[in-house]
Design a protein that fits this description.
Length: 421
């Protein structure tokens, strides 16, 4: 296993290119199972999750390879296998998004039931309810979900859950409905840009989807889809993380390939903290005042403040001049990073779904352990400003969602190294 060694205190300055969105790339790669011919995807980041899904797609009969220019080529060559095995699915919950394409194209699917998750309970009941609404028979046998349908039929359905809409569930049902007979309407659909990107890819392949990006998506079924060439949207979570990296180090970063319209809630809260963010040539220039103001924020589904930036914001607010409050309304148990940030000298107090943050003057380097993808990013941000040396273990978590984050940070002045533990 690798670890990061960070010597804090450097002010970051320079240009950071933002990679393509992981959370859009994964379901779009799965959607290629619906298509005939070749798809060329550009902007797919070099991540462990992308490689894991590529392995699963190969098992399902797809030829998946990356060109020298970084593009991924995918073509289905064998449609016999309909089984997503536990050994592959357990590595990445997003593997569940092959369910819809397999069911719609091959009329059956056997998917290993995803296990637990470090950020809390993440059931797939809405995925299954959506497939049943489309006419599928669903059974749970020996830890595997078995789905069958001779032909899916369009239906109207509600996909809202206790903590809001389901992002992967919306994408899964939308993909399946593309080849269903008739019209499907998804109410309380997820509005995230990543869901809209999946719809845009499918439309480029010949699907007839409208309303994506709103809570009501309409899909008119078609007989077939053809592969195409498509470019993935920029990763808004990576962009938000680097905005906070600039702020916490009192630096100045220019982010290229950054969609500010996907980050309006984040920009609103960061400006309230005292972060300066300006548009520039399809990207953003981010700098910070020396004094960080305390704020109150609650995570919400898009267009609200994203849960995937909650941990990183907590690291930033640890140095604010006063008390801040963060309430987690998407994954109420997503607070494993609290104890590790406190090891670095932060003063954080968890109260149910809320964390009260008492700002301190400085953080002190210490050995810490990453618990999940976004918690890893929060510890990196804290390490960038902590006095002395911070050692972050289990950084394989961060490799799932950030493309060479230590190299990007080192290029703009951070003292960070990857080493074997």
């Amino acid at each position: 296993m690798d670890q990061f060694i960070i010597n804090g205190g450097a002010r970051l300055r320079g240009v950071v290119p933002i990679s393509g969105s992981k959370n859009a790339a994964l379901p779009i790669m799965a959607a290629t199972l619906l298509t005939e011919g070749e798809t060329i995807l550009r902007g797919v980041p070099l991540l462990d999750d992308v490689e894991s899904l590529s392995v699963l797609l190969r098992k399902l009969g797809a030829n998946a390879r990356r060109d020298d220019d970084g593009a991924i080529r995918l073509r289905v060559e064998d449609e016999q296998n309909c089984v997503a095995e536990y050994e592959l699915v357990r590595k990445m919950r997003a593997s569940i998004c092959v369910m819809g394409p397999l069911l719609a194209r091959r009329h059956k699917a056997q998917i290993s039931m995803p296990g637990g998750c470090a950020i809390g309970d993440r059931p797939i009941d809405l995925h299954l309810a959506g497939m049943e609404n489309l006419g599928a028979d669903v059974d749970l046998i020996g830890g595997d979900i078995h789905l069958r349908a001779k032909r899916l039929k369009g239906a109207e359905m509600f996909l809202g859950g206790p903590f809001g809409s389901t992002v992967l569930g919306t994408a899964n049902v939308m993909m399946a409905a593309c080849l269903a007979e008739g019209t499907t309407i998804i109410e309380s659909a997820a509005c995230e840009p990543e869901v809209a990107d999946v719809a845009n890819y499918l439309n480029a392949c010949g699907a007839r989807i409208s309303g994506h990006g709103t809570p009501r998506i309409t899909i008119e079924g078609v007989k077939s889809l053809k592969g195409c060439e498509y470019t993935i949207i920029p990763d808004r979570i990576e962009a938000g993380t680097f905005m906070m990296a600039a702020a916490i180090t009192n630096g100045e970063l220019t982010l290229t390939n950054c969609r500010m319209d996907h980050l309006l809630a984040v920009i609103d809260r960061l400006k309230a903290v005292g972060v300066n963010i300006e548009r520039k040539d399809g990207g953003a220039v981010v700098s910070s005042a020396r004094r960080l103001e305390p704020i109150t924020v609650a995570t919400q589904p898009f267009p609200g403040f994203p849960t995937d930036l909650q941990a990183q914001l907590m690291a930033l607010l640890s140095l604010a001049d006063g008390n801040s409050i963060i309430t987690e309304k998407v994954f109420p148990d997503r607070f494993l990073h609290v104890a590790e940030l406190n090891r670095l000298g932060a003063r954080l107090r968890k109260e149910g779904q809320t964390v009260v943050i008492e700002g301190v003057r400085r953080l002190i380097g210490a050995p810490v352990m990453a618990s999940d993808l976004r918690a890893s990013a929060a510890l990196v941000l804290a390490g960038l400003i902590a006095k002395g040396q911070t050692r972050i273990s289990r950084v394989y978590h961060i490799d799932r969602g950030y493309e060479a984050i230590e190299k990007k940070l080192a290029a703009v002045g951070a003292d960070i190294q990857r080493m074997a533990e």
